Task: structure prediction
Amino acid sequence: MKKYTAINDIENLSDTIQKAIQLKKNPYQCTHIGQHKTLVMLFFNASLRTRLSTEKAAKNLGMQVSVLNVTNAWNMEFEDGAVMNLNTSEHIKEAAKVISQYADIIAVRAFPTLEDKEKDRAETVLNSFVKYATVPIVNMESATDHPLQALADAITITETKTVAKPKVVLSWAPHPKALPHSVANAFIHLMHRMEVDFVITHPKGYELDPEITKQFPIEYDQQKAFENADFIYAKNWSSFNDYGNILNEDPNWMITQEKIGAAKFMHCLPIRRNVVAEDAVLDGDNALVIEQANNRTFAAQIVLQEILTHL
Amino acid sequence: MKKYTAINDIENLSDTIQKAIQLKKNPYQCTHIGQHKTLVMLFFNASLRTRLSTEKAAKNLGMQVSVLNVTNAWNMEFEDGAVMNLNTSEHIKEAAKVISQYADIIAVRAFPTLEDKEKDRAETVLNSFVKYATVPIVNMESATDHPLQALADAITITETKTVAKPKVVLSWAPHPKALPHSVANAFIHLMHRMEVDFVITHPKGYELDPEITKQFPIEYDQQKAFENADFIYAKNWSSFNDYGNILNEDPNWMITQEKIGAAKFMHCLPIRRNVVAEDAVLDGDNALVIEQANNRTFAAQIVLQEILTHL
Amino acid sequence: MKKYTAINDIENLSDTIQKAIQLKKNPYQCTHIGQHKTLVMLFFNASLRTRLSTEKAAKNLGMQVSVLNVTNAWNMEFEDGAVMNLNTSEHIKEAAKVISQYADIIAVRAFPTLEDKEKDRAETVLNSFVKYATVPIVNMESATDHPLQALADAITITETKTVAKPKVVLSWAPHPKALPHSVANAFIHLMHRMEVDFVITHPKGYELDPEITKQFPIEYDQQKAFENADFIYAKNWSSFNDYGNILNEDPNWMITQEKIGAAKFMHCLPIRRNVVAEDAVLDGDNALVIEQANNRTFAAQIVLQEILTHL
Result:
């Protein structure tokens, strides 16, 4: 692997999932592979799971890790040809090349503006690092994607499924804040790669990018979508068409134990209890959310290992 | 040891103190014990000594360390059953379980509100971690206690005392800001466990939690309390009865060289010079404050070592 | 080396440069020298290059590294005898002694106020650490100096020069913010130690501290200064005489490709494109800025190595 910015950077997904599951059994089997290698983790946004799991994954491989909250330093310029006489202090051209000299792999987290749709879809921050850095880039959640979460979800589903081709539902759920589309997009990208029967459900107006969803059915009736589901993946996102806005917070879309029945419940976390899903769901036996978070370590570790192997 | 949230988690205190003193002579005698073990340090509040000494202690044992300023991420919810539609993004139930998967030990710093007395006394943050985490918790100063400081103080007194049962005085001292009771409480808890003649002195109105102080004499005349003292431990705290408020900043309670005479002077630091204690005290030969801070490393190291031994 | 607060702490500069160039070929030749040694990096100001390169250098030597943003903790007091009843919580006397117990080397970054000229020239923060710490201090950019940058620049010039005694020009360049004098000063201190023909050029009113520049010619005509230059080092600084103020942002002083011709272009970064230097300069073959940043690692590493050798 030369970089990991999207799930499609993984050539053989089921093979990678199996390797991650093997790693999970003994995370310290390759502590030599990262010797004298440095991971620089750059955060343009806050992080808990991604920060701790990716750092742990790198250290499990014997890497050195530097964590930098970029916003503690200064604003970066991403526009080509900009006259930098305002509030940006360093151009990504220099920043990416310079950091590449201190790092063997650079991991980047940079959320969308949720205001400038075209800028967000262009993945300006992530793609600028890909363009100008001279070392591999790992996406720790970008404007429109979150492939480390998707890989962790793939591991979780693979470990848990009891039928060859499970029914998986991605359901919008209410939330008081306008949230990115990245986790939903990443999960849909993943569904393209897995042997599943996949349905998306959300209120009208919450359609995601049609380029991403076009091969999958959209069912506006949540309860109908949930029928015979094996896995229900809940996530809030703001409107894509009315970009970045909250159209409604309809509490009827909250995930309840009654609704999910025997289906497994998935969410990337953090989750707002009794808004996105009720306590009974999260405290119930069918919730996979803690294991999903656990698998973040092994998703990150197999990705870093594959990249290190090809340095 | 299964956790370290209070000095009473130590079964045999004098034995632990002796082990810490042995560690101090050669801090690298157990660099294998922490191999492939991770300490996650979570800060809800600022830290200098605790951060650096605990991180160093963990690394001396060969542990990996991740430091996370929680307030850089998002607000956590601690109330059971909360409908999280306001400003909290993640419930402690998920956070504690998730972090437990990335950590072998979790260390937490979370100061009191100094506004909500019952919430502070309930130790909501610390106890929620104890309740929901699946790995041992270390208290890096909580709403009402600071047992790593107390253990460092125990080491310092043990190394310094010249009589079997020294007279120790805990004295309130002035300060311009409303401060927590945690260090004072921790020191009093320690005094219960040591062979000492212990007196507390403070202006009227600054009585600490009577549940904690009840077995010890309170002397409102500072100079009388200081008579024949071997150790004088100074600390400011805000009122417990008139909760979290400053009743006076009476400069007559400042510790002076004349007042302490031949007694050793202790303080947990940071200390406001010429407010809590005058320069002559801190620059004098009887000040133990720098050695107390040094012993923080070995207090943390013996605690982590004991916990690692019982994982 | 007992500390590294100025380039003159290096006794034999050309020897040190050659050692750094050797280190660059194999950065992992001395991973034992830092074993069980801790570098504490204290930041009073933001950092990207210095943070990552110095951390990497220390880890290349096998050191443990703790990074602390001091401003996340509390304000420190530097005045002797201060009555600390205002907004400072810890005196440097305690802080420096305490941190010295957790560190084998302390590295400090503390920018100038650009308001109080005498305080800045006194290097209050850096010199207080030198005075009160009991371990060696490394300057990661202080109020008036930046010797790690200067050493990286020395390595870069040595690697690049094609004549025994190159002509080197330090040129002021425009910038929208008032900037420190530290990089310019550090470069001038370096020029004293290298075999170069050195000229300083800037608009009238931007004279630097005459104590530092006195042995070198100042040429107010930029183009004249650039004639036959081998290296052009660009940097903005605010006025020294009209202390900390911006007198003009004359865009005619921006560095252009036409102006520099065949000369190599140097800058410490971060650089504002099309304000300090035009894109064509930074994207051209004569720009050394990325390599200067790369050499920051080896400058830091040889400094730490020399200090560790003499502990």
Observations:
- Chain A has two domains: 7-145+296-309, 147-292.
- Chain A is about 35% helix and 15% strand.
